[in-house]
Amino acid sequence: MRDQPPYPPPPEDVLEIGAPEQFAALSHPLRQRLLFALGHRPATTSQLAAQLDGKKGNVAHHLKVLREAGLVHIAGTRQVRGGTEQYYQRTARQMVVAEPQAAGTAAMFAAVAQELDRSPAETHLTLRHLRLSPAKARELGETLAQLVDEAEEHAEDQPVHGVLVALYQQARPTSATSSA
């Protein structure tokens, strides 16, 4: 098969994001979408450009930034008529941002918004604010993480669905805004 990479699927591991170059790499929506696209199987620059409706040179530039930040790597190569094709792969199946930074978070939300806009199926998006004790918030966070981690994947011929989980505590209003 011409479009199948010549190596096994990525390992089941977790990468914690924390280095400045990683946050810089995550601060662009196309790089977020590239990471989404590489979530299940390695791909070449040409395959990614076609999948994301982008220009090959632009995709190559953003892959280089992701590679330099340690978020993707070259997982294999294959000789083709015009030279050598490189297959890119995420360095981890799951990437966890322990202390999110505004630019990376904004880019991730922008990338998710683009994915939602392009979705051919009905989407589900809910924002709800709850009053929770610290213990209940921790319990909810653990339950959500477990639910996502334990979701069973189906065969490769099934569509890919994105799941974004966020649990955060709202900042309290400052005295200047609460007295107005």
TrEMBL record:
- InterPro entries for the chain: ArsR-like_HTH, HTH_ArsR_DNA-bd_dom, Metal_resp_trans_reg, WH-like_DNA-bd_sf, WH_DNA-bd_sf
Entry keyword DNA damage:
no
Which SUPFAM superfamilies does this entry report, sorted A to Z? Answer: Winged helix' DNA-binding domain
Domain (HTH arsR-type) ranges: 21-101
Q: Where is the signal peptide, in residue numbers?
A: none
Q: Does the keyword DNA-binding apply?
A: yes
**Mind listing the GO molecular function terms for this protein?**
DNA binding; DNA-binding transcription factor activity
Which positions are tagged coiled coil? none
Alphabetically ordered keywords of this record: DNA-binding, Transcription, Transcription regulation
Q: Which superkingdom is the protein from? A: Bacteria
Q: Which Pfam families match?
A: HTH_20 (PF12840)
Q: What is this protein called?
A: HTH arsR-type domain-containing protein
